[in-house]
């Protein structure tokens, strides 16, 4: 995939949560190729390290944080260290979240998924520049357009879009907010899915007849964050190969 020209200013910074794998890593590498300095956040130290090494190999700049986004104190400390390392942070990709198959208590899951995005966003705001700042959350077609077996996943992903609409309506003086909504996306957590019986059934119904790649979601995320999207605020953007229009 060639890199698009989104109008980013080289040297501006972005924080990406869950950047040690999948969609977050793809966004981190595309951001580095766009000239952004990248705050690479993840629970998994090996994932942080691998993403940073890949950014360095591209000639980019990165700062890593091993942080659990559901721990508000850890988030505030990580944001402060990231800003000290990279300067003002223009962009935020709230991407980390547990897999939809995790067996979690409903209340705990909503706190982890939605509460973490609220605390990372509030921790980021003091370090965002006065103009041009933007945030994108990785929502999902699940919850917003289709229901999943796990109650907490649908509820949390729909809740995230409610939070985005609040931010878009009431905080646009500080930053723009949008949501990207992956469909079935080929990341480690869905390894083997395409060849499973359910995977084959779903792929049959996706008009583009393939899973999304992490780079497909990353490209949409960076577009929504970028100056090219400066009048886009509060949208929910499915990146699902047209799957949900066939439902
Ligand atoms: N893969 C899909 O089909 C799909 C579809 C819709 C939405 N999504 C969403 O995309 C996002 C990224 O998923 P992915 O498919 O790239 O998965 P992934 O498992 O490849 O990557 C997720 C990363 O997030 C990290 N992470 C998880 N919880 C964390 C926490 N509390 N604090 C910090 N880091 C944490 C993990 O360590 C991992 O490195 C998730 O929010 C997921 O719900 C994925």
Structure description:
- The chain has one domain (13-184, 220-239): 3-Layer(aba) Sandwich (Rossmann fold), CATH 3.40.50.720.
- Helix 1 crosses helix 8, helix 3 runs parallel beside helix 4 and helix 4 (106-124) packs parallel to helix 6 (151-170).
- The chain has 247 residues and is an alpha/beta fold.
- The protein is 42% helix and 16% strand.
- It has helices at residues 22-33, 45-57, 72-86, 106-124, 141-144, 151-170, 197-205, 214-225, and strands at residues 13-17, 37-42, 62-66, 91-94, 134-138, 176-182, 185-186, 212-213, 236-239.
- Helix 2 (45-57) links the parallel strand 2 and strand 3 (62-66).
- Strands 3-2-1-4-5-6-9 form a seven-stranded parallel sheet, with helices on both faces. It has a two-stranded parallel ribbon with strand order 7-8.
- It has eight helices and nine strands.
Low-pLDDT ranges: none
Hetero ligands: nicotinamide-adenine-dinucleotide
| Topology-level CATH name | Rossmann fold
- Overall CATH class: Alpha Beta
End-to-end separation in angstroms reads 29 Å
Mean pLDDT: 96
Question: What helical percentage do the residues reach?
Answer: 40-55%
Q: What is the CATH architecture term? A: 3-Layer(aba) Sandwich
The string of secondary-structure elements, in order, is EHEHEHEHEHHEEHEHE
Task: Tally the structural domains.
Answer: 1
Number of DSSP strand runs = 9
Computed structural class: alpha/beta
Task: Give the percentage of residues in beta strands.
Answer: 15-25%
How are the strands of the biggest sheet laid out side by side? 3-2-1-4-5-6-9
